[in-house]
Amino acid sequence: MKPAGGAPLLIMRAVGKTFSNGVTALDRVDLTLREGDFLSLLGPSGCGKSTALRIIAGLSSPTTGVLDWRGPPLAQTDIGFVFQEPTLMPWASVFDNVWLPLRLKGVSRREATPAIAELLERVHLTGFENAVPRELSGGMKMRVSIARGLVTKPRVLLMDEPFAALDEITRFKLNNDLLELWQDERFTVVFVTHSVFESVFLSNRIVVMAARPGRVFEEVEVDAPYPRDEVFRTSADYAALCRKTSDVLGRAMDAPALTKAGAFDGIH
After folding, report:
1. Partners of 219 in beta bridges
2. How far apart are CA 98 and CA 116, in angstroms?
3. Does a cis peptide bond (omega within 30 degrees of 0) precede residue 86?
4. How far is CA 209 from CA 28, 87, 188, 253, in A?
5. Residue 15 phi/psi, 5° resolution?
6. Residue 264 has what pLDDT?
7. What are the extents of the domains in the chain?
8. For labelling, which of 76, 196, 244, 250 has a CA lying 20 to 30 Å from the CA of 207?
């Protein structure tokens, strides 16, 4: 299967964000998100990746620019969010943590059970329904968080460095499982990461960002077919795409900061 990407779902035009302390986190970001994309935002710390994600989620408002959502209006439950930390309720069971978004919609525990049972099976947590977070590993907690993000069947799933704190083996397994879910359900993903290797493995598009202020530096198309597995991860094509993306990221990190007027100020 060739990389995804259909009709435009969201067009960000000249989006900027300046905080009350005067720090400009984003400057004139132009970005198009397409239906079915697995789009990664890649860049160094402080380049505005998470700020852009929060603006897309509606958790923060842009200072300048517009977000143009296309197609049918999005309901609140059409956007799922998976944070860097699992942010689970420590006193609640795995089932109840996943049930929370449906419970807030007024869906009863009984009504929610089939959907939750199916999702827990998909994220390999069957048998752990009654466990509480302190009884789970870091990877298992993140699986709960992913299931919670998907339980409302969102059109868009936003993920803010969800696997950054995990060991490499667990991270690889969760990358594989996430791609399988995405291919089966066909939701649209915006995925924030610091990892070139992770972005290339997962994405059909990588938006590389530069800092001071945060802005789009360059886009990399990952023209590799799905499904992707260990064969792809050890292939020459994967290595070449990682080198290409790493080169773009290196140039983005070396890019001079911009003045408010948009001119280079030469700071490195």
Report:
1. 207
2. 7
3. no
4. 12, 27, 20, 8
5. -75, 130
6. 40
7. 1-74+157-164+188-268
8. 76
Concatenating the DSSP letter of every residue in 145-161 gives: HHHHHHTT--SEEEEES
CA distance 198 to 185: 21
Phi-psi region of 46 (alpha: psi -120 to 50; beta: other; left: phi over 0): left
The DSSP letter of residue 257 is: P
Residue 47's nearest CA partner among 86, 17, 82 is: 17
Q: What is the pTM of this model?
A: 0.92
- On whether the CB atoms of residues 93 and 130 are closer than 8 A, the answer is yes
The residues near 150 (Cβ < 8 Å, ≥ 6 apart) are 80, 119, 157, 181, 185, 187
What's the confidence (pLDDT) of residue 267? 35
Structure tokens at 225: 């077919």
Distance CA 202, CA 229 (A): 10
Token reading at 203 = 């994405």
pLDDT < 70 regions, the chain: 1-5, 259-268
In the block, residue with structure tokens 């006193």: 91
How far apart (Å, rounded) are the C-alpha atoms in residues 221 and 200?
Answer: 9
Nearest to 180 by CA among 226, 127, 231: 226
Nearest C-alpha neighbor of 164 from the set 7, 67, 49:
49
DSSP state of 214: B
3-state class of 47 per DSSP?
A: coil
Nearest to 98, CA basis, from 74, 57, 130, 75: 130
Contact of 214 with 25, CB cutoff 8 Å: yes
pLDDT at 73: 77
- What gap in Å lies between CA 234 and CA 239, rounded to an integer? 7
CATH, range 1-74+157-164+188-268 = 3.40.50.300
Q: How many residues appear in the chain?
A: 268
